[in-house]
Every structure is written in C-alpha cells, then in structure tokens.
Amino acid sequence: MRRATPDPMIEARRRGPIPKDVDPTIEVLVNDIIAKVADKWTMLILEALDEHGTLRFTQLGKAVGRISQKMLTQTVRQMERDGLVRRTVHPVIPPHVDYTLTPLGESLGAAFCGVWIWAETHHAEIERARRAFAAAGEASDVSACIETP
Asked: How confident is the model over 116-137, as pLDDT tens digits?
C-alpha cells in the first residue's frame, strides 16, 4: 500500500484530547467500519484499486487473487453502499462494469496505511513474541505429558 498524505483535520483531532463523552451513533459506526475493514477482502480490494486505479470486475478479481466471484460481488457492493467505491456500468454489448475508489475510499486507504507502517515497524518484535509463545506452549505440552509420581 502506498504512503498517503495525512488528512490535516484527522491529524489535528488525533493529537487533541480524547473526548469524555462518546456519541453512541459514532460508536456504532466505528464498530461497523472496523468489522468491514477487518475483512481481508475489503482491504485487498482497497489496495488493488489504490495501486491500479479504475479496474473492470474481472481485472479486480485477478488483482485481488483467490476470491470467488460471489465474494467479490458482495464485497464491492458493500463498499459501494458505504461510499468507498464508485461503480460505473458502461452500456455496451457485452456490458462491462468499472470500479474505482472514491475520495472516501482513498481516505480509508490512508488510514490503513498507518496500520501497514505499524506492522512493518514492529514485524521483528511480533515474530519474536510468536516464537516465544510457541516455545512456551511446546514446553507446557511436554511437561503435561510427563507423569509425576
């Protein structure tokens, strides 16, 4: 994912104090967006459109890779519903459909870019922690198999 320029409005609010009261409507929206963004297909489609620009449906499927036509259809429809993707149907025979990111979709890509950078920065630490956890699990598995008198 390419590095996006930060949105000055978001950056100013992020650096400001944490609000004391949380608007329940915003909380529901945030939980909904996180659930969708956590979906790997949404992020892969977002990345493909960010890298390649406007793509036809079949090109988008190839760029994402290993996604069924049904899942691609469901995901881009949801992204279109949320205003992240613009779908353009060309009235030709045979008809074809193009997908492109909207400015809102581009801004979500910029937000995800921060997660990408975080993962890249902390990759070695995460791998060390995973190895340590696996080793501790193996040690406890071995000790559970040893009979005590």
From this structure: 788 888 999 999 999 999 999 8
25 within 8 A of 33, measured Cβ to Cβ: no
As a whole number of angstroms, the distance between CA 65 and CA 134 comes to 30
Q: What is the rounded distance in angstroms from the CA atom of residue 46 to the CA atom of residue 100?
A: 9
Q: How far is CA 86 from CA 61, 101, 103, 110, 123, in A?
A: 16, 6, 10, 18, 34
Q: What Å distances lie between residue 117 and 2, 4, 28, 29, 69, CA to CA? A: 10, 11, 27, 25, 30
Q: What is the pLDDT of residues 26-68, one digit of tens each?
A: 888 888 878 877 788 998 999 999 999 999 999 999 999 999 9
Give me the residue spans of the domains in the chain.
Answer: 8-145
Could you give the CA distance from residue 134 to residue 107 in angstroms, rounded to a whole number? 37
User: If you write DSSP's letter for every residue of 12-63 in order, what string do you get?
Assistant: HHHHSPPPSS--HHHHHHHHHHHHHHTSHHHHHHHHHHHHH-SEEHHHHHHH
Q: What is the pTM of this model?
A: 0.73
Q: Which CATH class is domain 8-145?
A: mainly alpha
- For residue 74, give the amino acid letter: Q
